[in-house]
Amino acid sequence: MHLDFLRDYHEALVIALARTQPTIERGTVAEVTGLTPQAVSKVLARLLEEGVIAPAGVRRPALGKPAAVYRLVPEARWAIGAHVSRRALRLVVTDLGGAVRASTETPLPSDFTPDELLTCLSAGVTTLIEEHQLVRPEDAAPGGGDQLARRLVGVGIGMIGPLDQGTGTVRDAHRLRHWHDIPLATLAGHHLSLPVLVDKDVTAAVTAEAWRRGNGFHDAAVIMVESGLGAGLWLDGTAYRGAHTNAGEFGHTVIQLDGPPCVCGRRGCLEAVHEQATDPAAAAAVLGAGVVNLLQTLDLGHVVLAGADLLQHGDLYRRAVEVAVRTQVKRADWLSVEVSLTSLGTDAIAAGAAMQVLNARYGVPEPTRPRPAPQRR
Q: Does the pLDDT of residue 126 top 90, yes or no?
């Protein structure tokens, strides 16, 4: 088990580097990853056999021996990502480089049930597999085999919380009556006959941003406004999910003690106050105050704004948050924060869910944390 972990870890280090560089070579890989030249040679040989990287010629330095050069083969591995909102199911297909190759959106019934979602998900995934000629895991040649095959790794689902990411179980999703302790990952796996990962929508979105932005995206949040309000957290270079994998319920932090009632049962939550704002400018100002609270708590370096509802007034929201950061954070000259809009548009959550599937096999393993024992009632 330990040797398998090291093998996968070393492969992930090389793939992560290949995702960010046009080409790689043995010496550069050893220097950046800290692996020995012998280890690098073994990893490159395995990845070549699997078809994940390919030869890309030879670099001839002015001095010294020529060096073999390699490139990532993005089309060697694929994933499908799903974004479940309260209104629709959005599906994307991404390659190993994280590029979105196609996206579709299908309306969902009002207050949809698990069966209604699974029926829609199954139909959509089947269509994408056929249209893009993706090869299911059970049909792929063993050990890499046909290097021209478009191998599907699995399906990721970004879902409304609260949910238990460790088990893929949705716990009383806000504003959805039929979603009490629903084992979505298990049910979807049975329906699709594919590996399935389920995570909170906001955590999937912040994963997508981290993949695209690289190592500079170290302590950050994606603020999502889409028929609800949440925050995906990327802390110390990895997704932060919390003790119960339910971190990110940013919209259910109270900012007005005598404020309007919220769907979570409390009063004056950021989400409820934001929804009652009289116009987009007022709503953006409310969000700005909430973002400053988050910055004061976590000392973030990046804030990315996302979500279909927010992006309708994207520039207005970005300016309002920038003003709030500049005027409400003491020493903003020192506690500087980059505020931006997502570059993935409405695909952010679905793309991140797909990238999480790829990351589970071809990414650096996330640190594991002990899970609390369930409370007896």
A: yes
Distance CA 197, CA 366 (A): 14
Q: What is the per-residue pLDDT across 321-364, written as a single tens digit (0 to 9) for each?
A: 999 999 999 887 888 899 999 999 999 999 999 999 998 888 76
Q: What is the largest CA-CA distance in the chain?
A: 73
- The pTM of this model reads 0.89
Q: Is 351 helix (H, G, I), strand (E, B) or coil?
A: helix
User: What is the C-alpha to C-alpha distance for residues 276 and 290, in angstroms, rounded to an integer?
Assistant: 15
Give CA–CA dist 274/296, Å, rounded. 20
- The candidate with the shortest Cα–Cα distance to 353, out of 91, 67, 52, is 91
Can you list the domains of the chain with their CATH numbers? 2-72 (1.10.10.10), 75-203+349-362 (3.30.420.40), 213-344 (3.30.420.40)
CB 150 within 8 A of CB 78: yes
DSSP string for residues in 115-182 = HHHHHHHHHHHHHHHHHTTPBPGGGSPGGG--TTS-EEEEEEEEE-SSEETTTTEE-S-TT-TT-SSB
Flag whether pLDDT at 33 surpasses 90. no
Peptide bond into 37 cis (omega under 30): no
